[in-house]
Amino acid sequence: MQQSSSSAKAAVTVIGLGPMGRAMAAAYLDAGYEVTVWNRSPGKDADLVGRGARRARSAAEAVAAGPLAVLSLIDVEAMYPVLADADLDGRVLANLSSDVPDKARKAAEWAAARGASYLTGGVNVPPAGIGQEGSSIFVSGPQRAYAEHRETLDVLAATDYRGEDPGYAQLYYQLNMIMFWTAYTGWYQAVAVARANGLTAADILPYAGYTADSLRGFYTHSAAALDADDHAGRAQRLSMCAASVEHILHTAADSGVDTGILAAHAELYRRGVDAGFGGESSSRLVQLLGNPVQG
Ligand code: NDP
Predict the structure, then answer these.
(1) Is 125 helix (H, G, I), strand (E, B) or coil?
(2) Which ligand 1 atom lies nearest to the CA of residue 122?
(3) What average pLDDT does the structure give for the chain?
(4) Ligand 1: residues within 6 Å at CB?
(5) What's the rounded mean pLDDT across residues 193-202?
(6) Which of 97, 156, 172, 210 is an S-S bond match for 73, by CB 3.0 to 4.6 Å?
(7) 268 close to 290: Cβ distance less than 8 angstroms
(8) How does pLDDT run across 59-85, given as a tens digit for each residue?
């Protein structure tokens, strides 16, 4: 992900120097870019400035330093006070801060009203993955701005362009996050039950790895059936899955640990059986999740 040797030293601005923004600015320095940085609170840019980054005195000055400003803030709305005084006309903002799709769309309108093109990004890796092979960022927004700055954005991680709708990068990102957080919280729940029974996280780690690996197969096998609305319970029926989910709920309860998450889980599966789907695949639950009132 190095800048091509034939191109002139390109300029890029990074606004927001949390762990993610610092990793981004460092990746640009590694790739030979002329980097301008700004952060709301002082003291987070010392290493970067020591390596040649230019410290802007204000966010407005940082934006004025080059055609592309990459934002890495706590969320999308943090951008408004930060850029309130900046002249955005003709600039491209790549806001790689995580947030919900609708806020990304509103931010794109806000930027467009000030003459800027606005790209949204959802970063799929932690700071250590920035600039590394195999890392990716969802990007959406104006195709022209993306084409113009793709090479610069690819320095951070391979960009996966999701179309003109500025909400789409965040939508794809949040879909990944739904899968990530529900699975990762399941890990914490399992460790709590393990500890209550005298086991450690290390004791169950090999089995956690096996379970995580097996999920890929479950997703792959169910995707085509879900899209075809085929809910035949060939290998597993919802009634069996509901019984299994009751077992995990009661194992947790018998262990004396919090059962809030598992109780919500069991309630969903019970609703599926009550709705008459017990003999079909658990994929019927997508229907209940999509229609909570009717379900
Ligand atoms: P941090 O919370 O550590 O840093 C947030 C940055 O936002 C800081 O520069 C902070 O400034 C600034 N900020 C917060 N609130 C405001 C505000 N109201 N006005 C102006 N600036 C504000 O986050 P990270 O660096 O970890 O992450 C940045 C983005 O990257 C987030 O959207 C996050 O979801 C996303 N991301 C992070 C990952 C990670 O593993 N860290 C992984 C994938 C995505 P100040 O220093 O002054 O507080």
Answers:
(1) coil
(2) 44
(3) 95
(4) 16-21, 39-41, 44, 72-75, 78, 81-82, 97-98, 123, 126-127
(5) 98
(6) 97
(7) no
(8) 999 999 999 999 999 999 999 999 999
pLDDT at 10 over 50: yes
Q: Of 112, 141, 167, which residue sits at a domain end?
A: 167
Q: Can you tell me which atom of ligand 1 is nearest the CA of 39? A: 9
How far is it, in rounded angstroms, from Cα 32 to Cα 55?
17
CATH value at residue 272: 1.10.1040.10
Q: Which atom of ligand 1 is nearest to the CA of 75?
A: 32
pTM here is 0.90
Amino acid at 68: L
Residue 106: domain span = 11-167
Tell me the C-alpha distance between 30 and 2, whole Å: 8
Distance, CA of 275 to CA of 40 (rounded, Å): 53
Strand partners, 13: 36, 69
